[in-house]
Every structure is written in structure tokens, then in C-alpha cells.
């Protein structure tokens, strides 16, 4: 990764944690730009059912996905 790419990633970070970085929302174009294959995405939704799920699973997040990035700027979220 070039230093300018790293600087751009750092500018997106709202807060650093053990998982990498956390953002409130990210535009799909930005995710295509900075995401890498096998990145793990975790989600914390604001719905009541998501909150209930986090309580029962004793987790900070209610969904998880993995990013796969194709060479033609396509991404797949599994």
C-alpha cells in the first residue's frame, strides 16, 4: 500500500479499535476504493430486533460479512 493510500484510509477512521476502524456509514464507491479481499465487515444496526439479537448473543455487532473484490472494481459482500 502506498503512503497516500494509507493516509486516505486514516482520514476515514472515526475511531481505532482492535478490529481495525469504525465508521458510521460508508459509501459503496469508497468501499470499492479502500476495501480489500477478505476484509471482515461487522454491522451494528439500530433496529429493535438487532438490539435484541446483540443482547442474546452478548455481542457488540449483529451481522458480519466478508468482502471479495474483483479486478474490475466489482465487490461481493458474503
Structure description:
35% of the residues lie in helices and 27% in strands. By secondary structure, the protein is an alpha+beta fold. The strands form two sheets. The chain has a three-stranded antiparallel sheet with strand order 3-4-5, with no helix packed on it. Strands 1-2 form a two-stranded antiparallel ribbon.
The count of DSSP E runs of length 2 or more, i.e. the number of strands, is 5
The helix/strand order is HEEHEHEE
Overall SS class:
alpha+beta
Radius of gyration: 14 Å
The portion of residues assigned to helices is 25-40%
Low-confidence parts: 9-18
The overall average pLDDT, rounded, is: 77
Strand content: 25-35%
Give the number of helices: 3
Shape: elongated
Strand order of the largest sheet: 3-4-5
**C-alpha end-to-end distance:** 24 Å
Describe the main β-sheet briefly: 3 strands, antiparallel
Amino acid at each position: 500500500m502506498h503512503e497516500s493510500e494509507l493516509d486516505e484510509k486514516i482520514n476515514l477512521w472515526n475511531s481505532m479499535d482492535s478490529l481495525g476502524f469504525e465508521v458510521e456509514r460508508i459509501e459503496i464507491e469508497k468501499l470499492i476504493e479502500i476495501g480489500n479481499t477478505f476484509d471482515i465487515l461487522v454491522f451494528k444496526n439500530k433496529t429493535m430486533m438487532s438490539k435484541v439479537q446483540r443482547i442474546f448473543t452478548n455481542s457488540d455487532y449483529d451481522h458480519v460479512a466478508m468482502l471479495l473484490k474483483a479486478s474490475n472494481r466489482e465487490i461481493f459482500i458474503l
